[in-house]
Design a protein that fits this description.
Blueprint lengths: L2 H9 L21 H31 L11 H14 L1 H33 L1 H15 L3 H12 L3 H25 L3 H9 L4 H37 L6 H10 L3 H29 L9
Helix pairs in contact: 3-11, 4-5, 4-7, 4-9, 4-10, 6-7, 7-9, 9-10, 9-11, 10-11
InterPro entries: MetI-like, MetI-like_sf
Organism: Paenibacillus anseongense
Family: Belongs to the binding-protein-dependent transport system permease family.
């Protein structure tokens, strides 16, 4: 290199590589405890606006006589009927027997639905043998099969629990089957490389990947179990919330009918909320759109 080139090179500004810019964080900052409480209360307030508005208008129209109290009693009259049933102990007796029927029926039907869903999802031979018959039975409505259950098992508890179990079986069966079949096949290739046993594949790979569908099936099964409970208790019973509604209808006690409907609604919503809490705990790893 000549002396002139050396001088020119010395006078050239040294170009330094630009420092990499820190990545822009798209995650929301963690909220403090007071902020989280405030956000929860805001959600509660927003969710309460519509029901409270409906109740206020309903009470006003009923008090003014615009709507017949026999056809549509006011919220105050429904609350009074609820209080009377609660104080007499009659309400607790009916709710207890209904929850027992729904729980036993759901445990039987849900357990069988989960077991059959796993078998059909994991083994193609079971799918070819069982799935066509199960899908055919799934299309039979509750009301169509109720007379047959009465002829076979009478009006006792067994027929009611069996009817609830029938309803709870199919949602969990279908969702478990879909969850397993939606597992990425590449995961099984990885399991073969790691030499997982069949049991390890099911517990460490299949069930965690299918868990969102299984929990959805659990929520749907609980909902259908409550529907089955209504049909079971209306077909012939001397206890339960369904019997309470039927008995009140015969004596035109519309307020008590509304009490029974609200009990079904609140208990059903409570059980669904418990499953949603379970979803949040078990599916923390899932990054999904929150709206």
């Amino acid at each position: 290199m000549s002396q002139a080139e050396v001088i020119v090179a010395k006078n050239q500004p040294i170009s330094r590589p630009k420092a990499a810019e820190p990545p822009v964080s798209t995650e929301q900052p963690n909220l403090s405890k007071p902020q989280r409480k405030e956000a929860k209360w805001e959600l509660v307030v927003r969710g309460s606006i519509l029901p409270l508005t409906v109740l206020i208008l309903w009470q006003i129209f009923g008090s003014l006589g615009i709507v017949s109290k026999t056809l549509l009693p006011t919220p105050y009259a429904i609350g009074q009927a609820f209080y009377d049933l609660l104080m007499s102990g009659e309400l607790f007796r009916h709710v207890r027997i209904s929850i027992w029927r729904a729980a036993v029926g759901f445990l039987i039907g849900g357990s069988l639905g989960l077991a059959f869903g796993l078998l059909v999802g994991l083994f193609r031979k079971f799918e070819q043998t069982l799935d066509p018959s199960v899908q055919m039975l799934r299309t039979i409505p509750h009301l169509a099969i109720t007379p047959l259950f009465i002829l076979w098992f009478g009006f006792g508890e067994f027929s009611k629990v069996l009817l609830i179990a029938k309803g709870a079986f199919f949602p969990l069966y279908v969702q478990t089957f879909l969850g397993i079949r939606n597992v990425d096949s590449k995961l099984f290739d990885v399991a073969r490389v790691l030499e997982f046993s069949k049991f390890k594949q099911i517990t460490k790979l299949v069930l965690p990947a299918a868990l969102p569908n299984i929990l959805l099936g659990l929520r749907l099964s609980i909902g259908v179990a409550w529907l089955g409970l209504v049909v079971a208790e209306l077909m012939g019973s001397s206890e339960g919330v369904g019997y309470l509604i039927l008995d009140a209808r015969q004596f035109s006690q519309t307020a008590i009918v509304f009490v029974g409907i609200l009990i079904f609604a609140f208990v059903g919503k409570g059980s669904d909320s418990l499953v949603r809490i379970l979803e949040k705990k078990l599916l923390k790893w899932r990054d999904s759109f929150n709206g």
